[in-house]
Amino acid sequence: MKNVCTLPFFSVGFRPFFLGAACLAPVLLLVWVGFLAGHVPLPAGMVPVYWHAHELLFGFTSAVIAGFCLTAVGNWTGLRPIGPRGLGALFLLWLAARLGFLLPGLLPAWALALLDLAFLPALALALGRVLWRAGNRRNYVFVPLLAAFTALNAGFHADWLGIAPGAAYPALTLSVWLVALLLTFMGGRVIPFFTERRLAAVRIPPRPWLAWAATLATATIPIAWLVSGRSALLAAVLLAAAALTLARWLTWQPWRTLGEPMLWVLHAGYWFLPVGFALQAANLLGAGIPWSAGAHALTAGALGLLALGMMARVALGHTGRPMRAPRPMVAAFGLMLIAAALRLGAYTPLPTASLQALAGLAWALAFLTYAVTYLPILVRPRADALA
Q1: Residue 135 — φ and ψ, nearest 5°?
Q2: Burial class of residue 360, CB neighbours in 10 A (0-12, 13-18, 19+)
Q3: Which of 59, 240, 338, 344 could form a disulfide with 55 if both were Cys (CB 3.0 to 4.6 A apart)?
Q4: Is 37 exposed, middle or buried (0-12, 13-18, 19+ CB in 10 A)?
Q5: Which of 175, 73, 63 is nearest to 119 (CA)?
């Protein structure tokens, strides 16, 4: 039998991790909807909403980050970050932890914690090694970012294991903002570039001061929360981040991308960043908007759309295929946008439970569409290798 690690599927990081993320996303949302309906159990002793947040942040999102970084670092350095066997082992490590969270009682809590906490440091080691060898200082930031995610994940597990009661909530809250910071930083790198490259008539003058201001304002949000909690200071920082990220987004001329699904999905995702910051600020200023509305704008909106759009784009570009969204993916992008709108609509006087369920189903269907559409692309050799 042919060694599975010689297959194209384990040749580059985006292949297993994007498929894994796309398969996990609908499972997580369907399990969550089933739990809310009273039909599905979750791991004993875990606060249900914490399970939901953890698996979206440290299960789904960590797979997307792994797939993107393990692929991009080859372009950044010209070096291969990990071989097929190492990639296969890293993917199995991620998968084992996900099964532990999906199947109550499969593993003791301490064993599941060890499995789950091992993944991000292993990923950081693979990335850091080649970044150091290549002297690629510009991207060293990803190593401390992964270390911060690991520390926050450790806080979650310490709460669950009874070592540090109460640590899960701050860990998950900070994780959402850390994801928002990553999206702000990387979105600002790639979205203008992709837009100019695809639309010949669009020219986006560089504004380094605005890029730095938006990124630094976003990075200041968790600091302000740690210093002062949900305070007027935090509201001011959130409003600053909302204004700066919105201003930056407008300079990219998003209205000119409406005819290009591979572009508008990224622009739409980035737009949800200032929306999320503004909704959280509005809560602090007494507008009657729930705090979680902002969190869902950042996750269901910004994370969902940007992850789906980048997964679609990277898989085409790195398998030698034209940068055109397959028709099912155009529908998937629309479903993800609908999912985000429905999730925020659940905070209006409309029927909350129904909108939450519909949002979860739309999210699940969007990623299921990706998994089905991109499965042949992710498991087969590059298109130019077949020609």
Answers
A1: 65, 35
A2: buried
A3: 59
A4: exposed
A5: 63
Q: For residue 226, give Cα distances in angstroms to 222, 229, 243.
A: 6, 6, 22
CA dihedral 132, 133, 135, 137 (to 10 degrees): -30
d(CA 336, CA 308): 8
Q: What is the pTM of this model?
A: 0.94
State how far the alpha carbon of 60 is from the alpha carbons of 126, 131, 259, 316, in Å.
19, 24, 29, 20
Collect all residues with Cβ–Cβ distance below 8 Å to 206 and sequence separation of at least 6: none
How high is the pLDDT of residue 386? 53
Given a cut of 80, is residue 45 above it in pLDDT? no
**Residue 128 CB coordination number (10 Å):** 20
Q: What is the DSSP string of 44-56?
A: TTS-HHHHHHHII
pLDDT tens digits, residue range 288-303? Answer: 899 999 999 999 999 9
pLDDT band for 351, please (50, 70, 90 cuts).
low
